[in-house]
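Lab meeting, item 3. Inverse folding demo.
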């Protein structure tokens, strides 16, 4: 049974808060949540991105620690809260990024290789041809440089003496959650959770164990791998010297699964979309690990006990399309103004925009496809192009949702949303229209951190149950579909034609 949260901390101070660490790709954040599940304070510290070669992306692990610990100290100071008043801390994190460090000194042997890094693409393309189906059956993942296994293999093969040291048991591997927990606990706990393990391509999502045959395939000594626990679980206590008190670490979760849990999408058929630079969609499939026949991946969701699964699809270019309008073309000065510009015209004037700047992700998986803007006439204006760009985000999400519905053989009638672009009312209304489904935007967009806080709070008893959290949730904005069926069908047909043009290749 999970431990119950003590009412009093050290020195008689009440434990009235849960801290959530949100370790992201460009910054580390820390948030405090009260007993009603409300965010009461937040702090953020950015850290540098490292690009040693074209297509390579790295982080300095020491910068990750410094920024994340600094963010937690900053939010405690900002809120006037001591570490003694924290009932627990939960960790959410960028998922596939690889850390490798000395188990005795804690010193990293190399920079963290970030999920965005493409240095192992050639190896993965070859592996996909020979072992793609076999790997999918065990991991639920498409073979791609995106996931952790090939990155870890590269470290062991290219960092001097790394493989020899790993085989002697001198090195430890982990994703960002594992690295943070190891350092938070003073090296006492080397563990991860199921959601992060499921993104490594070394974890069997059916047996819930590291897969020995997968490790042999990638040349990974199993002694470097962390223990795998449920997302809500005991992950040790923080060192007293870090924040002034020992704080129980009671949750770890990958960021997208954290957002799914933050929306309380814990029932089969519930799902969410995060609108960031790209778009990440997950739909809960309950205790079924649904095999996708439509270009999606199968992954584990956050849980405190029994495992649950999800289908996931990633859109490569979401908010990045708006960034391009601003920074590349100079058509807008800010993302915020796109809403009013799009509303200033009744439609796109026949313009279709396929933002395949780096190819197309799920469900098309066309790496060679490139972006197109079609249907331009002398009457095309800035507003038409801006509107087409916003619509393209929703249309790509539609493609993923449609694939999910085909795999599930069921309609998704309600989609929760978060992320920066979800603040755009035009986009959210068009998303509801093109899906023919309700789109629900919570009052608080901090769903990733909220998910980590909920997991830690439920595990410790700080929060009674899911029902209690639902009852405490602030009123959300709901966008209902309003588009006529004929108009919707015409818009989808135009999108299909635009995709066909963008994906066309000469023989």
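The presenter then showed the designed sequence:
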């Amino acid at each position: 049974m999970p431990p119950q949260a003590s009412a009093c901390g050290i020195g008689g101070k009440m434990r009235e808060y849960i801290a959530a660490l949100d370790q992201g790709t460009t910054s580390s954040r820390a948030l405090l949540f009260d007993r009603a599940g409300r965010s009461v304070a937040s702090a953020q510290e950015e850290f540098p991105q490292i690009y040693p070669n074209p297509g390579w992306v790295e982080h300095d692990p020491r910068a990750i620690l410094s920024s994340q610990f600094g963010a937690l100290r900053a939010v405690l100071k900002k809120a006037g809260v001591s570490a003694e008043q924290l009932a627990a801390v939960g960790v959410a994190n960028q998922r596939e990024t690889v850390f490798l460090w000395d188990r005795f000194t804690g010193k990293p042997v190399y920079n963290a290789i970030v999920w965005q890094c493409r240095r192992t693409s050639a190896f993965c393309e070859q592996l996909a041809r020979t072992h793609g189906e076999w790997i999918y059956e065990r991991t639920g993942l498409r073979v791609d440089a995106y996931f952790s296994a090939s990155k870890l293999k590269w470290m062991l093969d290219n960092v001097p003496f790394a493989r020899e040291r790993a085989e002697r048991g001198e090195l430890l591997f982990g994703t960002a959650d594992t690295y943070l927990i190891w350092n938070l606990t003073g090296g006492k706990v080397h563990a991860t959770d199921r959601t992060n393990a499921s993104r490594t391509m070394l974890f069997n999502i059916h047996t819930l164990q590291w897969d020995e045959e997968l490790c042999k395939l990638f040349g990974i000594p199993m002694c470097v791998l962390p223990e795998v626990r449920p997302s809500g679980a005991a992950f040790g206590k923080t060192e007293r010297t870090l924040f002034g008190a020992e704080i129980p670490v009671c949750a770890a979760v990958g960021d997208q699964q954290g957002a799914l849990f933050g929306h309380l999408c814990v029932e089969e058929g519930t799902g969410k979309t995060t609108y960031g630079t790209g778009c990440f969609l997950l739909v809960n499939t309950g205790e079924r690990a649904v095999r996708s026949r439509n270009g999606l991946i199968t992954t584990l969701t956050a849980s405190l006990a029994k495992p649950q699964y999800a289908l996931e699809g990633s859109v490569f270019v979401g908010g990045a399309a708006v960034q391009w309008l601003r920074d590349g073309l100079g058509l807008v000065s800010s993302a915020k103004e796109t809403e009013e510009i799009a509303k200033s015209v009744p439609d796109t004037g026949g313009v279709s925009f396929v933002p395949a700047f780096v190819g197309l992700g799920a469900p098309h998986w066309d790496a060679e496809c490139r972006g197109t803007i079609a249907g331009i006439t002398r009457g095309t204006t800035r507003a038409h192009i801006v509107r087409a760009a916003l619509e393209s985000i929703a249309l790509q999400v539609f493609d993923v949702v449609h694939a999910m519905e085909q795999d599930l053989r069921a309609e998704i009638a309600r989609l929760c949303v978060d992320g920066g672009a979800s603040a755009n009312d035009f986009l959210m209304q068009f998303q509801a229209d093109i899906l023919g489904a309700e789109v629900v935007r919570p009052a608080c967009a901090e769903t990733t951190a909220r998910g980590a806080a909920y997991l830690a709070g439920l595990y410790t008893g700080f929060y009674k149950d899911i029902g209690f959290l639902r009852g405490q949730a602030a009123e959300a904005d709901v966008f209902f579909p309003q588009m006529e069926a004929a108009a919707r069908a015409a818009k989808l047909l135009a999108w299909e034609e635009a995709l066909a043009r963008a994906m066309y290749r000469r023989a």
